[in-house]
Each structure stands twice: as C-alpha cells, then as structure tokens.
C-alpha cells in the first residue's frame, strides 16, 4: 500500500484487532521493522542479530551513498541517513547488491585514514543504533529471517480471516484459494489444485499448506556458497554456516557444532527462559500493580505539591501587592506635597511680573498723591517688595525634584527569589548510620536527619536481595522517630534498607541503601551458667548473667612461682545454661580488647565434665584445646571426631587453629573482630566462627555432636566477654534512653 492517504497494512491489522476480529497474542512490537515501522517484509538478520526489511536495508544504503557523494556540497543532507527513496535507480540498486570486492574494483572502496571516500559495508542498525559491518558480501551475506517471516505471515493470516487469498490460476473472476503449494509458490482453489497437481505425477508429491503468501525455501542455503546447504553452526560468530565455510572460508579456525546440536541447545535455552518468564507472570503482574499504584500516588502527590507551590507563590504575590500599594501611596503623597510647594512658589514669582500681582499693585500705589494715604499703604507694600527682592537674589526651589529616597531596593529580595527552588522548601535526605545499624535476631536501623525537627515522619523501606537478581518489591514501615527494629527477616540472606522523610505531602529522596546480611541460622538465646563449673574466685559474673570478667588478682600472683618450674595457670571455664541437641543455631558475643587469653567455641557435655573435674591449678602447656591433641604431635592437626572446638582470642588477635593447609603463623593470625559469631549445625556436625561486622566466616571445622553441645568459654588473665543482647523493641527503647 502507498504511504499517502491510504491506511498501512499494519494500521489495518491493528484496526481489526481493536474491533475484536483478530485474536492473537500481543507481539506486535516484535513484528515491526525499526526502520519503516511496518510489519516485516522479507526480513534480514544483521550481524548484531537485529532484523530489518530487505527493502529498508537497500534504501538506507542508498541514502548513505547519496549523503557520502554529497560531502563538501553546500546542499548536502545533514539529517538522518534513514530517509525513504521513492524511486531508486536500478544502477544504484545493482551497485548495492554487488559484493564488496566487485565494488572496490569499480572504484567503490572502503574508508581510508584521512579520506572522505565512503565505506558502504558499514551499516547503521536502526534497532540498536550502532554501526555494523555487513562484511565482504554486503547484503548478499545476510540471512533471511524465515522464522520471523513465518510469524509475521501468521499474524497477517489472523487479520486476513475476513479477507480471503484468491486463487492464482483461476480465470477471471478468481475463486477463493483453499491451499498453497510451497514448491510452486502459488495458491490454488480446489479445482485448480486438482488440475495442476494430478494424481500419479511428481507434482502430486508437492508440499501444500493452508492459504498463504509466504513461500519460503525448504532448505536454507549458504549466502557465501550459494549451492551449499547450511548444516553447521559457528559458536564464535553465532550464525549458521556450510561445510565450505568451515573448510576454507572465514570460519575455518572457528569452533562449530552440528545444526541439530545447536538447534537442541538453543531451543532448550529459549524454552527455559520462556518457562521462567511464564513462571514469574504473577510477580510481574504484582509489580505492574505496584507501579500503577506508584503512578497514582505520584500523580496525587504531584497535584498536591503543585497546589502547595501555588499557595506559597500566591502568598508572595499578596505580600508584593501590599508592599507595592504602600510604596506607591508614599510616592504619590510626596509628589503631591512637592507639587503644592512648587505651585505656591510659582504663584509668588508670577506676582513679581509687570501688570501681574505685586508689581502691578505697587505701580498703582505709586500713583497715590495723598502723602498720608501713600505712607499708610506703602509701608506694608515695601516689606513685601523687599522680601520678593531678597528671594530673587537667593533663588531656591521650594522642594526637591529627586525621589532618591523612594527608590525600592530589591537586590536582596531578588537574590533570594532567584535561589528559590524545591530544595530550599523541601527536605534534606536522611542518612543511615552504618555504625549504629546492625542485624542479629532482628535488624536495628538507625538514621539521622540534618533537619530532624522539620520532618513529620519517616518511611523505612527494606527488601530481600535475591541471589538470582530478582527484583523484589520494597516493604514499607512508617516511623515517627529515627530508628526502627525490623523483625521477620530470613536467615542467611542479604537485605537492603533505605529511608526517606515526609513533611506533609513533601517527600525527600531516598537515602543511600544499606546492605546487611542476616545470621546463617536462628539466634540461640542463653546466659552464662553460674552453677556448672563457675569459679567465683577468678571470674566475676554480672547480675544479668550476660557478661563475665576474669581478673588476674592475688591468687594468680601466688601461682606465679610455678612458672619457674614450667607450669602455667589453668583456664577458667564458663558455659551457657542451655544445651543444643538438634538443629542449627547462631550466637554472638564481644571479647574485650584488653583480654589476654580467651577461648571460645562449643563442647559436648561429656568433654565439659572431664574439663571441670580436672585439677585447676596445673595443666601441661603442651595440651592445646584447639585441636584436642598433644601439640607436640606434628601429624595430628585435625580430628573430625573430637567433641569440642575452641579458638583462641587475645591481645586483639584472632588465632585460627592449626590445620594441614594453614600452619604458618602469618596465615593463622587475624585482627580480632569487634563482635564474634558462632554457628553450630548440630545435624551435620559442623561449627563455624564469624566476623559479625561483615557476617564473614573466618574458620569452620567438623565436630562430634553425639552428645548435648554447649556454648563454651575459657579465660586466662585479665579479660571479659559480653554476650550480644537480642534486638527487640525494649532494646530500642533502652538505646534511646541511653
């Protein structure tokens, strides 16, 4: 169809779709050529994997050729190369279709440095807006996208259900076709098909389908070797090739696979991706609903903000009108007063003129001959004449003409109005305090606002970060203060937190996101046991039983003499008051920086009884609780059957136990974390030690969990251990009170 006045084919189809005459999935955007904005016609696959109509490629290349030929001309077209040519010459079309080697032999060469000669094999893809190289064969080296062509034809057939495809062989008037022959590339009615495809002939074996105008070849041939069929797939170039391309062509050194294998692999990938998208349909719908709500909220907030802005400006206008009125009244009053003074002075001077006023009156008085009458009148007149004479000698206007005192100074106000913006009337962005924000059994998020008293409320948003890069929706919590405890978080997951401030309808931008990783298992709550093995001579336990201190006092000094004979003071043990018999648990604590030697970990009930029954005044220095073996045995680093695991912490260092892979001192010594976490998987018999600040595993190993396992701690010399307090709403209130 022509482009002038007549409706396009795509527009016609869309009209049928709108009327409900065509039922087909919403894939219109995939079937439209990015160049002509119509349904694809003989689409070609560009090297960038985008498709474009065959005629559009030719027209764009012809436009490029014309624009390059006009370089340096005053009338050259500087617009887009994507112009439509109504009647390109056959010479130009023939030139476009020639391979690059033939074009160069005819003087049509590629780009050279410092040359204006065009390289016509470079083509601007309308889909991705990038230049792609068509290669040596130009258009002839591009594959037709038969799959896309077939889908477009199905799309057209859905619209042509009401308009039949006529028989190509009928005598006028033609009948409606009932089938199309793919070998003959023609459509037939029933009678003509029987005539031209009689039984017992070769044509009777032709492949026929329903009425169509899309006749594609049965075998895909190689565009570089036109007599060879496509039977391989180049994995590097990602395009089908023939065996000659692999043997001696451009793909000789490329990795290729069979067409069946490529078909199977690509089809599986595509099917998997489609299934994934279909499986996420409910999520997409919910996100669309969320976006629609956000659009409505944005529209309402925008209108509200607009109304508030208008109100503010109207107040400014009222103030300006009021000030304008008072200033103009003051100027008018001063002007009237000055004009009155000038008018009186003018009248006084006009009286001095001849035949006018005082002079005329004085001249008449001079005509008086009676002396007594003259003296009586002339005395007062003489005073007036003297006054007028003096005023002539010292002329001074009765008022000032300048209104300098009435000039309105708006420079400061103009500067303030020039700085008037949304920022000055909006809210600053709140900032999350990373040092005070943490996650344990719950998440505690603290933030501060530069203008705390201005914001009416805050909205804390959080969402889980999916490892599959799945974008989950934000959860929102309205908060009146500047901190919030968030509960119900999943274990061993990353969460993103952000906050924004509200004042009326004005909303600040969101703060920078804070990412926190939750513990790998539910938090295990316990306190220090004050009965089992607790040595109150060396250890000091607080009333809440969540903090213990070891003080090197008089008893340690009395035992110091044993150092001369090679003995050391024993460790003082303390355990948790609750044991673990199944499941996964996580707990955390802080070791005071001044601590000399602290051991932390887990131990079975049997092992603890052995430790707590042993003499407490002397233990061999060769015995090492980290491994459960004599440290003098070099070949005994690791025993998965031991019923305990303890790591050493002291002097602001974290010491990793010996192992076959980590025996060097520099590899075993780490900086002591601010807070240390322990993760026990009872069912799998595994214990891990974590840096709580970054939720990073520092060390893990197997442990025998055949008996009840307890959190175990041991101290030597000065030291202290503080159990992490679970984060609750009361914890938050306590923090705010502090």
From TrEMBL:
Residues 366-423 form the COS domain. Residues 429-521 form the Fibronectin type-III domain. PROSITE patterns: B302_SPRY, COS, FN3, ZF_BBOX, ZF_RING_1. One of its GO terms (cellular component) is cytoskeleton. InterPro entries: B30.2/SPRY, B30.2/SPRY_sf, Butyrophylin_SPRY, ConA-like_dom_sf, COS_domain, E3_ligase_FN3/SPRY, FN3_dom, FN3_sf. Its main location: cytoplasm. It catalyses: S-ubiquitinyl-[E2 ubiquitin-conjugating enzyme]-L-cysteine + [acceptor protein]-L-lysine = [E2 ubiquitin-conjugating enzyme]-L-cysteine + N(6)-ubiquitinyl-[acceptor protein]-L-lysine. One of its GO terms (molecular function) is ubiquitin protein ligase activity. Residues 217-259 form the B box-type domain. Residues 506-730 form the B30.2/SPRY domain. Interacts with CENPH. This is RING-type E3 ubiquitin transferase. It comes from Carlito syrichta (Philippine tarsier). The lineage of its organism: Eukaryota, Metazoa, Chordata, Craniata, Vertebrata.
């Amino acid at each position: 169809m022509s482009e002038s006045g007549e409706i396009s084919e795509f527009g016609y189809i869309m009209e049928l779709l709108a009327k409900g005459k065509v039922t087909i999935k919403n894939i219109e955007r995939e079937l439209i050529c990015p160049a002509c904005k119509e349904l694809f016609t003989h689409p070609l696959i560009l090297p960038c994997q985008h498709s474009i109509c065959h005629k559009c490629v030719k027209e764009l290349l012809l436009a490029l050729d014309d624009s390059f030929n006009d370089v340096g001309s005053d009338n050259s077209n500087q617009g887009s190369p994507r112009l439509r040519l109504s009647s390109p010459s056959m010479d130009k079309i023939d030139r476009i279709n020639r391979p690059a080697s033939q074009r160069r032999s005819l003087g049509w060469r590629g780009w050279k440095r410092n040359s204006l000669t065009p390289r016509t094999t470079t083509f601007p893809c309308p889909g991705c807006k990038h230049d792609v190289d068509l290669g040596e064969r130009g258009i002839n080296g591009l594959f037709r996208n038969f799959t896309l062509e077939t889908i477009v034809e199905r799309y057209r057939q859905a619209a042509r259900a009401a308009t039949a495809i006529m028989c190509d062989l009928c005598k006028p008037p033609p009948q409606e076709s009932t089938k199309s022959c793919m070998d003959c590339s023609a459509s037939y009615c029933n009678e003509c098909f029987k005539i031209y495809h009689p039984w017992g002939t070769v044509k009777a074996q032709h492949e026929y389908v329903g009425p169509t105008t899309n006749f594609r070849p049965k075998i895909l041939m190689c565009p570089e070797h036109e007599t060879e069929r496509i039977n391989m797939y180049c994995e590097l170039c990602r395009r089908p090739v023939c065996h000659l391309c692999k043997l001696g062509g451009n793909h000789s050194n490329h990795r290729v696979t069979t067409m069946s294998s490529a078909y199977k692999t690509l089809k599986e990938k595509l099917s998997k991706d489609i299934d994934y998208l279909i499986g996420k349909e409910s999520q997409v719908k919910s996100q669309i609903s969320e976006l629609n709500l956000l659009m409505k909220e944005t529209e309402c907030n925008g209108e509200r903000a607009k109304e508030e802005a208008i109100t503010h400006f109207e107040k400014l206008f009222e103030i300006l009108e009021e000030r304008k009125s008072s200033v103009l009244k003051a100027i008018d009053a001063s002007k009237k007063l000055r004009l009155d003074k000038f008018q009186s002075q003018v009248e006084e001077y006009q009286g001095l003129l001849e035949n006018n006023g005082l002079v005329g009156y004085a001249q008449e008085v001079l005509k008086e001959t009676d002396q007594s009458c003259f003296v009586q009148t002339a005395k007062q007149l003489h005073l007036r004449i003297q006054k007028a004479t003096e005023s002539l000698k010292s002329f001074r206007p009765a008022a000032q003409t300048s209104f300098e005192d009435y000039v309105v100074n708006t420079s400061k106000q103009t500067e303030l109005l020039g700085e008037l913006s949304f920022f000055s009337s909006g809210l600053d962005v709140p900032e999350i305090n990373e040092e005070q924000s943490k996650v344990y059994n719950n998440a505690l998020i603290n933030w501060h606002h530069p203008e705390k008293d201005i914001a009416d409320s805050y909205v804390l948003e959080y969402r889980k970060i999916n490892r599959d890069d799945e974008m989950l929706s934000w959860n929102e919590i309205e908060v009146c203060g500047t901190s919030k405890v968030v509960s119900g978080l999943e274990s061993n997951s990353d969460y993103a937190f952000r906050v924004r401030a509200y004042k009326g309808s004005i909303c600040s931008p969101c703060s920078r996101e804070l990412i926190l990783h939750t513990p790998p298992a539910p938090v295990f709550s316990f306190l220090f046991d004050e009965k089992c093995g607790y040595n109150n001579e060396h250890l000091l336990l607080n009333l809440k039983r969540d903090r213990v201190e070891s003080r090197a006092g008089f008893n340690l000094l009395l035992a110091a003499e044993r150092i001369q004979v090679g003995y050391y003071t024993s460790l003082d043990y303390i355990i948790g008051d609750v044991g673990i018999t199944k499941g996964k648990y996580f707990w955390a604590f802080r070791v005071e920086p001044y601590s000399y030697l602290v051991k932390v970990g887990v131990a079975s009930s049997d092992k603890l009884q052995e430790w707590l029954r042993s003499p407490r005044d002397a233990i061999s220095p060769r015995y090492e609780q980290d491994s459960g073996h004599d440290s003098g045995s070099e070949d005994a680093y690791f025993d998965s059957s031991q019923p305990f695991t303890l790591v050493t912490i002291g002097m602001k260092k974290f010491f990793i136990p010996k192992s076959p892979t980590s025996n060097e001192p520099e590899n075993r010594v780490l900086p002591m974390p601010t807070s240390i976490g322990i993760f026990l998987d009872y069912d799998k018999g595994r214990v891990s030690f974590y840096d709580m600040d970054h939720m990073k595993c520092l060390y893990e190993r197997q442990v025998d969990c055949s008996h009840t396992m307890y959190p175990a701690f041991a101290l030597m010399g000065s030291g202290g251990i503080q159990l992490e307090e679970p984060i609750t709403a009361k914890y938050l209130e306590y923090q705010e009170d502090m």
